[in-house]
## 1
Amino acid sequence: MVAKKKGEPAAGSDADLGQSFAVNLMQHLVVPTFVLDAQCNVLIWNKACERLTGVQAAEVIGTREHWRAFYEAPRPCLADLVVQGRVGEVEALYFTHGDASGPSFGVHAENWCVMPCLGSELYLAIDAGPIYDGDGNLVAVIETLRDMTDHRRAQTALEQMATRDFLTGIANRRSFDEKLVSEWKRECRDLRGMSLLMIDVDHFKRYNDTYGHQAGDRCLQQIATLLEQVVFRPGDLVARYGGEEFAVILTATDAIGAGIVANRILERVAELALPHSGSECGYVTLSIGISTSLPEPDMTQENLISLADSALYKAKHAGRNRYVSDQGAETVE
């Protein structure tokens, strides 16, 4: 007969039954769930987790290979960060996250996961909560998962509708206004100059009258695509300002740099060679007004727009197919 150790529950005790019931319950939860021990080994990988990831429990139980269910390269899951006391890394590793200041109560995060076994990408809402013994020692961490892919994609679509121009797909007037305000504050804080390009398609009414509004829409779409190809720095912005007018915000850019960008745009439009019988040269051209400003007490973003509009007006009346800068520079293509 084997003596029972002190503190050890008797065989078939309520403690044994309770633990068995808890494990069995977790296995059959409809919420995808897995459990890591204090060494990041997988203790439980329930059936819902198998369905969500395409990875069977037998493949990961007793290993630290659970990352393979979510990512193509090794990286910690949220439960790993809790086990290892690395919750400070959540911000760098996850698309969005909750307050990680109190990890003893659990951590929430959301992320796009590539799901290698499924061959598809999912947006998962993730919660990881620690379990401690009576002495306060970490015993395990439970991670639960929710598939939020459809919700996230719908949310992204709504956000794009609010910030993108429906016809051209580039930023809309609202995005332009918000970007100009935020960048103006940044430029003033960092004592850097910025430039604004106001761009108008020459004789666009004639183009619509000659070729029809559908052709006019295609023309605007082609111009928008071209602008985004020329203006590609992450901090800059190309927007449809209204009608046939576009606007470009060039951060940390002086008048010379803005002129180079404007000249490149005019060259690319000439290469595009969209036929336009109502234009002086027989193809679609642009007029561009440029304003550049260093942060000054009496200068505002409204002044920047006004100066660019004035320069655009001068470009139009000087013969079109050119850019004019509020600094006095002018180029004719």
## 2
Amino acid sequence: MDRRDFLMRAAALPLAAQGSLAALVSGAHAQGTWPERNITFVVPFPAGGQADLAARPVAAALEKILGRPVVVENRAGGAGGAVGNAAVARAAPDGYTQLVTLSSLAVLPEADRLFGRTPAYEVSQFTPVARILADPTLLAVPASAPWKTLKDFVEDAKARPGQIPYGSSGPYGTLHIAMEMFAAAAGIKLLHVPFRGAAPALTALLSGTVQALASAPGVLKAQVDDGKLRVLANWGAERIPSFPDLPTFKELGYPDVEFYIWAGLFTPKGVPDAVMTKLRDGMRQAMKSPEVIKTFEAAGSPPAYQDQAEFTRFFEADSARLIAAVKKIGKVE
């Protein structure tokens, strides 16, 4: 059938069928030429945290690969990242709006249900694309604090229940869950002070507004190297190269205290296969970029890339573990 016959037959179709055909042709064209405009990486936290650290080098590399600007947009409305997560869940599944977020993506809807609230979004509204970073969390305190070891910290917390303030990125966010895991295992009560993201929480720790913080190595390293902060323990299963002398919670007698801050790329569910293939290929190349690798390693947070299939399996397993932890912790403010 030539072009003239195709157009004549299309014109003879009912209007509704013509509309469906036009949408089909338009969709196929969009998939074949994507991207035709700017791509947005929504980071649901303020600049300076783990998700932001993951997004910016990758966006710069992906921009060169895809030939279109990749803009990082910090949409920090508090609620542990729920506001930005929900915004992407509602976005059109066309590949132009994507989400770089943390493990709290799976936790926050469960926390809402725990309190009888309607979740702002559901995990089923997203498709995992790639994991970017995956770091064990570290417990940091001001360098001026009296605690030289985790034992010192626990003994003081037991002597003064509810009086040592710690910061977080919001209720049931990654930093909150990590600290409550530790507090429950140690049998201590701390004072939770939520902020709108990890970066404001770090600022509060540096200023002395709070006295403890769970955070990623890449976020803490410069401050520890400058002598402003001290780290007491590592939530990982083993010690890490950027802090080789820092013991794990397991080493210190807390075998069930293990937590990782990972960052990954997600799209709204329903992105066309052709667009997803281009995006996955672009991410694979971006994560091999020397500039990206150098940036992450310099920050003490080496790349932890996983492609879609592997990341999906990781995300499902990690989410199940974290949801079980939330249910065990129960309602906390």
## 3
Amino acid sequence: MLLPTDLTRTTCVIGGAGFIGRAVVTELLNLGRQVVVIGRNAKPVEMPEEVYYVANPGGASTPIIKQVLEAVSEVIDLAYATSPQTSFQDPVNDILVNLPEAVQIFELAATMPHIRKFVWISSGGTVYGRTTASVINEQHSTMPISPYGITKLAIEKYARMYFETKQLPIVCVRPANAYGEWQRPYVGQGFVATAIASILDGRELTLFGEHGTIRDYVHVSDVASGIVGALLKGAPGEVYNLGSGTGLTNREVIEWLTPLANEAGFELHLRVQPPRAFDVPANVLDWQKLHLDTGWQPQVSFAEGIARTWEWFVARHATAISY
């Protein structure tokens, strides 16, 4: 297994082949970092050549993880095996496939004093639960109503324990709803991707409630730069929201997409269903703490981001390349 020899500017991205992970890897490479990606499958063809890629289907308990952590000075952990929607199908499985893995990584990293920073990616869209607040800051109560959110919050508590008891320099980041190029549709997470793919595939798109839910949509490139900002300048032991501070309903997202679809000759087939009990009505994040500590702020407007995302999906659709 080929790994970098220079610890000082080497970052390990666990889950770096995923949707957000790809963007994080690009951000790190642009900053001149050496990057080691740990993924469960073989190296994707789209992965940059200069990335050190380690396939590790066995999870956190394998010797490979220890070898990689010994060769890096920074860790960003994006790995997670479920989504908010799928977590309801088997809540016990949601715990078993996510919680032990995260704690094992924390336990191992805490034994390695050369690790300068560890960033664990939580979920700003699920850990807070129902709220009447128009914008949610990090001091807001956490009362998740999905197994996914409950497990994410539990892992945050373990992260805090390792910071307090073993001085693991860990930061937790709570992103809002990421969207953009490379997001997979039809997986129960990512309304923008599913809406676009449904239009292009001629599939019916379901809206739960007349307007759907209100969510804080952040382009994946901004999510990546925020995560890297937390890596470089975030304070160990802290939790940071990563959002835009602006909410859009599902119907408003559709209204942004409709003229793009019409111009390209596509139609939207929409079906409205009753609201679902497990959907949080509104979730919009206050990102000022991350801005104050790291200088980060979102750069991609929703107008620009939705246009870029639409164009990417259209290009893939035109060449019959899978999402």
